[in-house]
Fold this sequence. Notes:
mainly beta, CATH 2.40.50.140, five-stranded mixed beta barrel, 1 helix, 6% helix, globular, disordered N terminus, disordered C terminus
Amino acid sequence: MGGGLLDLRSLSQSFLFMFNFSANHLFLLSRTEHPSYAVFLLQDRDTQRVYRLYDFSKAQRMQPDVAYCIAGKVNSADKLYLVIESVRLDTKHARCSIVPSPADGAGGSATS
């Protein structure tokens, strides 16, 4: 076998720990463009929590007032990053928005 002892402290610092995450009912608050990635701020309308999600592919195009389901990885070394792997419409909350619906359920326009 090879010589030398393994330093577990340096080993743990050099590895990137990854865990899966997924969240539903997220709504876009903002998108910030950086040279090699985009950062999305999304709010969970159920818990009111705000998440900062990183898109290193810069391929995601999300719209405000649309509910999304997002899956990805939690990358953790010295900082915590939620990295987007997939985005899809949240069909269970598709009709949810901050705009109240009419009490009678009518979906017509507000103009006369």
